[in-house]
Every structure is written in C-alpha cells, then in structure tokens.
Amino acid sequence: VTSLVNIDRQYVLAVALACLLGAVIFALVYFSNLYFVRSIVEPIASITETARLIADGSYGVQIEKKYDDEVGELTDTINDMSLKIKQSEKTQSEFISSVSHELRTPLTAINGWGETLLELEKTGGGDSEQRRRGVHIILKESRRLTTMVEELLDFSKMEDGRFTLSIEQVDLQAEFEDAIYTYRELFKQESIELTYDGGDELFDPIPGDPERLKQVFCNVLDNAAKHGGAGKRIDAAVRGDEGRIIITVRDYGPGIPEAELPFVKQKFYKGSSKARGSGIGLAVCDEIIRLHGGTFDIGNAEGGGCLVTITLPRA
User: Fold this and answer.
1) Over the Cα atoms of the chain, what is R_g?
2) What percent of the chain has pLDDT over 90?
3) Contact yes or no for 298/190 (Cβ under 8 A)
4) What is the 3-state secondary structure (H, E, C) of the chain?
5) Residue 219's closest CA among 289, 159, 303, 168?
C-alpha cells in the first residue's frame, strides 16, 4: 500500500502551472492584439479616412505622425502626396488663370484694332500711318497668340510622351545667326542693342532638329528682351570647346532672384516676374536641348543681368 499524497500534490501543482501558463499566454495574446489594433489597425483606418478625403478633393490635408515604423513611413508618403497634389492643383489653377489672361490681352487688341480699321474704311477717315500702326499691332499680337498656342501644344506633347525630333544635319551656327538677325531688327524698335560674337571657328554640321533649335534660340532671345530689356543691351555669342558647341545669351537687366533660380525651368513657374508669358517656354526649351544630348542652364551673370548657356555636343 502506497500513499497518493505526493502524487496528488504533484497533480495539483501541474494543473496550477498549466492554468498559470494558459493565463500568461492569454494575456500575451490579448495585449499583443491590443497593441496590434492600436499601432496598426487604428493608424491604417486614419490613413484610409485621410485618403478618402483627398480623393474627395480635400487636397493638402495631413495625418498626424505618431510612429517611426513602417506606418510612420506610410504616413509621411501620404502627407507628401497630399501636399504635392495641392501644389499641383494650385499650379494648374494659376496656369489656367494666367493663360486666360494672356489670351485675352492680344485678342482684345486684335478685336479693337480690327473694329477701328473697319470703321475707318467705312468712313474714309484716318491716315495711312494710323492704319499702318493698327495692322502692325494686329500682326504682332497674332504672332504672340501663335507662339502661345505652339508652346501649349508642345507642352501637351511633352506630357503625353509624344514630343519627338526630326533629325537631320544642321548648321547650328547658321541657325543661331538667323535668329540673331531676325531679332536684331525687332530689338531696334525697342531701343535694345543686340551684339553678336561668332568667333573665328567654323563648326561642322551636327545632327539635330533645325526647327526645334530655332525655337529655342528665338525663345531665349525673346525672354532676354522681355525680362532684361531694361538694360538696353543683349550679348549673344557662340564658341567651341572640346567636343562641344556653347551658345550664350546675356542681358543686362535686373537678373533673377537667387531664391527663384532653381525653379525657373519648371513648367508654369513665373516667379516674381510681371512679364507676359505662359511659364512653359523655358521648360519646352530645356526638353528640346535635353533630347539633343545637351544642357540648358540659366543663371545670373557677373556684374548683373541674366546669362543663358546652351551646350550641345559636336557629334
């Protein structure tokens, strides 16, 4: 006969330990689930709600960042996306407003002078100088409208990935000189002196799109007069470097504020300038030169004024 007291005691102890272990496991599961709900489910629900608000048009709304883990990274990404969408929406609104204003101004001048010339024709009044002036203004404003529409079409092609080049052998120096001679006469009417230094070197033709390159040259010269015409002088030059052709255009105006220099080539950006324009011309020029394998840089020149440097490979 053997006593079962020790066995009973061990059995009770084993049951107690099992119950205690079960309670510990239950507590761990409960608190881990509670942590999971608070650290993941609730933040995800908050992010989902914010994403819904953004989808409904509440651009710029931000989520409070409470964690530095993956959820925190997701929060930063959503906040950054929200700010960029807000900025994009603001830029688009400003662009539509700017383009509407820019289109309205020349159209008003064209309509006004068209009605004036028609009235003069009916009444037989006015002199030839007045009529010549009216026709000159109509042609000038029509060209400006044409330029704006072409810039908008080019920008649309850039956004859709349809912006291409028609490559052929181009005499780059001749194309630049054509633009110089064209704008020299136009600048004379505004009392702006345009000087040109072609150097002594003759460059071999390079592969490129002559129409697109001419577009860049005309845009740069037009901007130099538009933003730096107060200096009444513009210097243009072309020179050769090792494997490169470098074209520079410098005005003697007020220059570009240092804070705005990193953004001048961004689409729709006009900065503090009050000059007319859509804000996409330089973005189009930068894309054209990039597709030619070159660089398009804008900065301030020593002594004042703005300096545009276009670099293209010789081959």
Assistant:
1) 34
2) 18
3) no
4) CCCCHHHHHHHHHHHHHHHHHHHHHHHHHHHHHHHHHHHHHHHHHHHHHHHHHHHCCCCCCCCCCCCCCHHHHHHHHHHHHHHHHHHHHHHHHHHHHHHHHHHHHHHHHHHHHHHHHHHHHHHCCCCHHHHHHHHHHHHHHHHHHHHHHHHHHHHHHHHHCCCCCCCEEECHHHHHHHHHHHHHHHHHCCCCEEEEECCCCCCCCEEECHHHHHHHHHHHHHHHHHHHHHHCEEEEEEEEECCEEEEEEEECCCCCCHHHHHHCCCCCCCCCCCCCCCCCHHHHHHHHHHHCCCEEEEEECCCCCEEEEEEEECC
5) 289
Look at the pTM and tell me if it is higher than 0.85: no
pLDDT (average), residues 268-292? 75
**Pairwise CA distance, residues 306 & 296, whole Å:** 13
Could you tell me if 308 and 300 are in contact, meaning their C-beta atoms sit under 8 angstroms apart? no
